Amino acid sequence: MTETAELNTEHSRWILSACMLAMFMAAIEVTIVATAMPTIIAELGGFSQFGWVFSIYLLTQAVSVPLYGRLADMWGRKRLFFIGVSLFLIGSVLCGFAHTMTWLILFRAFQGLGAGAIMPLTSTIVADIYSPRERAHVQGWLSSVWGVAAIIGPLSGAWLVQHFNWSVIFWVNVPIGLFSMLLLARFLPAREHHKGATLNLTGSCWLMICVTALLVALLQADALGYWLLAFLLLALLAGWQLKQHEQRAEAPLFPLAIWRSRLILAGNAGNLIIGATMMGISAFLPTWIQGITGGTPLQAGSALAMMSIGWPLASTLSGRLMLITSYRFTAQLGALLLIAGSALLLLLRTDSSIMQAGLTAFVIGTGMGMTSTTFLVSVQNHAHYDIRGICTASIMFSRMLGSAIGTALMGAVLNFNLAQRLPQASDPMQQIMSHESRQSLSEATLHQWTGQIAASLHWVFVVALVIAMLTLWIAWLMPRQRPEAE
Question: Of 230, 226, 190, which Cα lies nearest the Cα of 214?
Answer without folding.
Answer: 230
